[in-house]
Write a structure and sequence with these properties.
Strand order of the largest sheet: 1-6-3-4-5-2
Shape: globular
CATH class: Mainly Beta
CATH superfamily: Riboflavin kinase-like
CATH topology: Elongation Factor Tu (Ef-tu), domain 3
Structural class: alpha+beta
Number of strands: 6
CATH architecture: Beta Barrel
Order of helices and strands: EHEEEEEH
Mean pLDDT: 93
Low-confidence stretches: none
Largest sheet: 6 strands, antiparallel
Number of domains: 1
Number of helices: 2
Strand content: 35-45%
Length: about 110
């Protein structure tokens, strides 16, 4: 299992605006770009999550609320579920994130 550790930094807040807030951390080693099922450890507790690997790691922690800015987190990449791609609109991106979230919820047995 591959792992990323880092202090959460403020990004462009696009995920938050779209309804999927992410914790952004700097990547210090190479990982293939794409969307991963992941587990994120915050204050000693693991949470199911989805992580986009691009120039940085952007992690959407399922069912988590709270301020993570400047806190240290650890992200374990479990399985890549798709490659990174560009979207023609914010709505198309939102629809894809919802599909990715459903995949994650099924994997973590969290289907509502």
């Amino acid at each position: 299992m591959r792992e990323i550790r880092g202090r959460v930094k403020k990004g462009e807040q696009r995920g938050k605006i779209l309804g999927f807030p992410t914790a952004n951390i700097t990547i210090r080693t190479f990982f293939p770009q794409g969307i991963y099922l992941s587990r994120t450890k915050v204050a000693g507790i693991f949470y199911p999550s989805l992580t986009f690997i691009g120039e940085q790691a952007e992690t959407y922690i399922l069912d988590f609320s709270g301020d993570l800015y400047h806190r240290w987190i650890r992200v374990e990449l479990i399985k890549k579920i798709r490659d990174s791609k560009k979207f023609k609109s914010d709505q198309a991106l939102i629809e894809q994130i919802k599909k990715d979230e459903l995949v994650a919820r099924k994997f973590f047995n969290m289907v509502r």
